[in-house]
Structures
1.
Amino acid sequence: MSAPAPRDYASAPQHVSALYEENHRRQTLAFVRAQKARFGTLDRARLSAWEALERLDQLADQSDPDTELSQLQHALQTAESIRLAGLPEWLVLTGLVHDLGKMLCLFGEPQWAVVGDTFPVGCSFSNAVVFPEAFASNPDAREPAYGSPTGIYTPGIGLEQVHMSFGHDEYLHRVLRDRLPQEALYVIRYHSFYAQHQHGAYDHLLDEHDRELMQWVRLFQPHDLYSKADAAADAESLRPRYQELLEDHLPGQLEW
Ligand code: FE
Ligand code: FE
């Protein structure tokens, strides 16, 4: 049986398009600011990275048209794919943890506010974002200050200053801030920004630092995507290697 082409949204199940419709309608600049304040407190749980991986094992990502794999299987497959490609150990670690921000779902957040491709808010929405027609129902689309390609920003301002739609990328970046090298944090923060890393959209908001680090996101991306083979990674056999990797590089409890 052959697998469908990755990220084939044209034939995506209805729950995928419904998720994106709600995401594009409700991710406004005001929503993003409110979520950052709400989840920036990091006072909801104290869990090690491995404990978080095990908790997420029950969750299936509703935005993903490609797989029904559990999150633990996806984490292990992504890490293994990066390791087998001979890439640096910090990127293997990044692969293992990159989706842990989906803990938001376990705190009661709906999937539209957690998963799916991300995009800047506070400026006009690009057609390079998946399901762009759904942005017509976002109130920010009628706000003149946000209506130009730069919107509230200045050209070349750098993504650090740009508000992205809120979800697991931005949240995990906050959880792991100070715990991982900047390249790893950057991959985590922008791994769902497909409009940029695959299509070059929003280039005018990037600075030199972004252009340098975005290369790591592009290097990471195929391992996130194309490692979603339906043959589930054998979690039991991979567990010791990756538990050790986390003990070496991300020991102890994290604040969620
Ligand atoms: Fe992700
Ligand atoms: Fe992923």
Note: Residues 98-99, 168, 191-192 surround fe (iii) ion (ligand 1) (CB under 6 Å).
2.
Amino acid sequence: MTPVSDPSSFSSLSKCATKHLNLIYHVDFDRHVLKGKVALTVEVLEDKFSSLTLDSKDLKIFKVSANGQAAQFALGTKHKFKGSPLEITLPFELSRGQHVIVEIEYETSPSATALQWLTPKQTAGKKHPYLFSQCQATHCRTMVPCQDTPSVKHTYYAQVSVPRELVALMSALRDGQEPDPSDSSRVIYRFRQPVSVTSSFFFFLKSCFFKMLEIGPRSRVWSEKECVDEAAFEFSETETMLKTAESLAGPYVWSQYDVLVLPPSFPYGGMENPCLTFVTPTVLAGDRSLAGVIAHEISHSWTGNLVTNRTWEHFWLNEGHTVYIERMIARCMESEQLRQFKGIGGWKELQESVKQFGANNVLTNLVPNMHEVDTDEAFSLVPYEKGFALLYHLEELMGGPEVFMGFVKSYIQLFAYGSVTTEEWKNYLFTYFKDKVDILNKVDWNGWMHTPGMPPVKPQYDTTMADACTALCQRWVKAKEEDLASFTEADVKKLNSPQLIEFMALLLQEEPFLLSHVKKMQEVYQLNSVKNAEVRFRWLRICVKAHWEEAVPLALKMATEQGRMKFTRPLFKEVYNFSKYSDEAVKTFKEHRGALHPVTAMLVAKDLKIDG
Ligand code: BES
Ligand code: ZN
């Protein structure tokens, strides 16, 4: 392994490594804090070891000890997004190969960016409070002092005390529960994670009044009881997907694969917490449109959780490979044409992201420099879709999907339980395809990896499924006022829901439509009443772009009723760009700010140029 340094972490990485973590939490719903006690088992990697630095952000540290003896500690200056280094001095010296147990008593802050505390009113059931965490990429340090970097992996054990009416869940295997001996109104839930994980894929939620349904031999779905049946229907293909993924990538090592449906403010579509995938409820449209998200998060069980990017600069290794496997699952379960169709959609998303950032922006590099860059601000679909395009391009060069998936599987087996850099990935690619090195040498690696903008080569895609979408989009683009009567409901009835989404995405890429066209589209296709969030958010953006004033309240409603950043940020931005309604966008944001997830609130404030 090349020497480790991670620009997103303050923690000591070359001199010690966490191997296990034992965590005790008391969840205080009144004060919005977690009282915590953590014991880190740390392996020493150098001689004369007597101090270490951990990551922390907004934590109150009460007491630190090392192997039971009091240790000195100090919090360094707070960095805007990286937090404060926690410097610990041991009362003794250790040598390479020894272990030390560092125990820390602390408390989180009510503004911890990993956590969202929901009032009963913000939940479906309206009766109980709810708390969930989202640690990726660098928020775990607001919940626990640790080496908050994907280059460090460890097992963990945890005990979480919550009020008796609530259930606690974690990204781990459940290990029983018991009444809290110190407070009869509370219960302690225990968890164990026997496979090494990194801090960002660590956590959990605890909370609410849950219901659980079995959806397969190793899978359960958890949600507030109001939507558990709907969720069980949506996720009924989970076991088939797991089996398909195993046949592609090797055995599933995490034992359990459960799905937790979060409240609408969850900022992502899905999050691959080991053993317990988190998903947004915004895709419960009754049409299994969540299948893609689940296939994606399942794929992370291999690329992301088992093989992990060494630092966030190599994030494409997680997301690019995951998108590649997710689309291989689509190929196995549906058809090659569907995979190709998704590839075309991905290329278009890449064009959109590059346009958003600007084609010269170094954040559109496949491997961006993350020094002094906030991972939340850098987030985009570039690592997903430039990463996929590169892998798909290599697949074309190396001999097709079976051949290339053979490489991906072998890469997974080689780097399993560890972390990897782009260079190590590339070296292994050259080793695996040793007979085809001359073809690989012709690839413009610098263009693909270290140059901003679109990739140097556009791969070939089969357009069978996309043709209908392109044709209908072009009919609208070219239509004159007098042609509008030729459109009928039948145009979209011929499209399935992924095609309808693609059609909307194509329309959105065009210059703003004339208001007359958009109104006609509503009249014949009734898009205002479509529930599928992927269709709806694109449709509302098209309307606002065309300055249809009636769509403004609908767009702001969608932006605030759910908080998935993929939808909320562009909707707010679109309304803000409609100059007559800029103030309205800002006002609505300010009114709802308190109910938004802290990361969503921070990013929307930036998008709308609101200071402080
Ligand atoms: N791990 C990501 C979500 C993430 C990335 C959270 C970076 C925080 C920082 C997850 O696997 C993901 O990619 N989710 C997508 C799902 C989609 C690609 C199917 C999402 O949220 O939209
Ligand atoms: Zn992902």
Note: The pocket of BES (ligand 1) is lined by residues 136-137, 268-272, 292-293, 296-297, 300, 319, 379, 566 (CB under 6 Å).
3.
Amino acid sequence: MYASFRSIGAYAPKKIYDNSYFESILDTSDEWILKRTGIKERHIADENEFTSDMGVKAAEIAIERSGLKKEEIDLIVCATISPDYFCMPSTATIIATKLGLGNITAFDISAACTGFVYALSVARAFIESGMKKNVLIIGAEKLSAITDYSDRGTCILFGDGAGSAVISATENKEEAIIDIHTGSDGSYADLLMTPNGGTGSEHDELASETCFMKMKGNETFKVAVRTLTKDVVEILETNKIQSDKIDHFIPHQANYRIIKAVGDALKLKEEQVVLTVAKYGNTSGASIPMAINDIYESGKLKHGELMLLDAFGGGLTWGSALVPFAGK
Ligand code: COA
């Protein structure tokens, strides 16, 4: 049995913070943000709109497009670093219940911006081992809840949203996910972290302000370019696929300059590279499925086309995947 990428869905909250919003609260400018990041807007969830709510909206679309009955889903994996609740219950179990799928295996994984690629690898393993048939994977983030809006070096980057895919068993090898590489290196943990709120906290209190993300932006930038490039070169070489055979290169949407540097290193043409960072900012685990959904909804992603996913995030974690689109 092989695992195939059967459908995609996504959701972005209505409220938008454009660059002028940050000009009104910080010492920054539209010009600086655009030049350094390529970001114009980010979608921001309402106060009472939770990560699970966004995950449910994306999942409903992915399930409908899969042509499956929701009861045929037998596993839910949610990738998030901004869960509804810090420790438990998992956001996946809340999503399962909101979808009306109470009695199901459901759990979260934490791999920051690489979360969706990790979730894809988990889904593939469950399917290829014969344990599950139709896995719903979700990347959902309410990063606005863990963003320090007084830190101009980080707050301009992040947005909220969710993306979801149904990964299904198939006997058709042509539809099969070709390969997934994942990795991590915890020695870089301090580049991007939420230093408080867990049992390794610097402070005793669990007040939310102390749980905000902290980032060494410049160092992260350099490691991101290096890692994202190395990762895709390796997966292409292992599978003896030339970069010109990739229909859609879908990198984690963190910064236009990072994506451009990786695309240039791989000698990719502009039309091969999927860019959504301008309108969503960095939505961590949701960024890759939201980008896939964008090209699907604009009619650019067709059945059988080859996607190359490339993710990088806090941990550090990284992952890449060669995935034919098996949807209609
Ligand atoms: N507006 C105006 N100036 C700003 C600013 C802002 N929003 N944020 C930082 N600056 C200033 C800094 O204070 C610094 O000023 P100084 O030279 O007077 O000290 C200057 O701009 C340069 O700061 P630096 O951090 O070196 O900028 P940069 O070119 O590295 O750009 C990031 C900053 C955050 C855009 C960039 O480092 C980045 O995108 N890093 C990767 C982040 C990322 O992808 N994280 C997620 C990984 S999944």
Note: The chain has nine helices and 13 strands.
